[in-house]
Design brief:
Blueprint: E1 7-10, H1 19-38, H2 48-62, E2 65-68, E3 72-75, E4 78-81, E5 85-91, E6 96-101, E7 106-110, H3 121-146
Antiparallel strand pairs: 1-2, 2-3, 3-4, 5-6, 6-7
Helix pairs in contact: 1-2
Amino acid sequence: METKGPAAFKYKVEGSSNATLVAILITCLFGSIICAANFSAWCLLGLLVPLGIAIYLVREGMRKTLIIAPRYLIVGEGIIYYSSVAKAQLDRKRQVLTLFSEKGKRLAIEAEKFPTNARKDFKIKANKTAKFDKACEKILARLSGVTPDIIG
């Protein structure tokens, strides 16, 4: 039995690295604690800066997902409605699912962008393939429910 709620997968979306923000977060955190210990308790308000950076990093981490909802697909900050998909092309050999919208927008979902905690090459390949197959199955099922003739 298929669930109708959104399914979420961790997915590496192209974007900037947050390494500098993490360094600023740690520096501000230590600076605020040292300032509060040496000067006054009012310096604890300086903890609002690291808190703001932490909230931003958590929100950025939420954008690194692939969300498959009943009527739309969200990849990072991009969204595509199933009703606006003109063609879907699945390449099993390269493990890439490409969705073409009516407006010419192209969205590719690749197996290599699914993260895994495995360390051995064959396990990494198996985990990424399994996640890709599961995500593709859900996307293609939802697409065939909207317009069955677009899958090629």
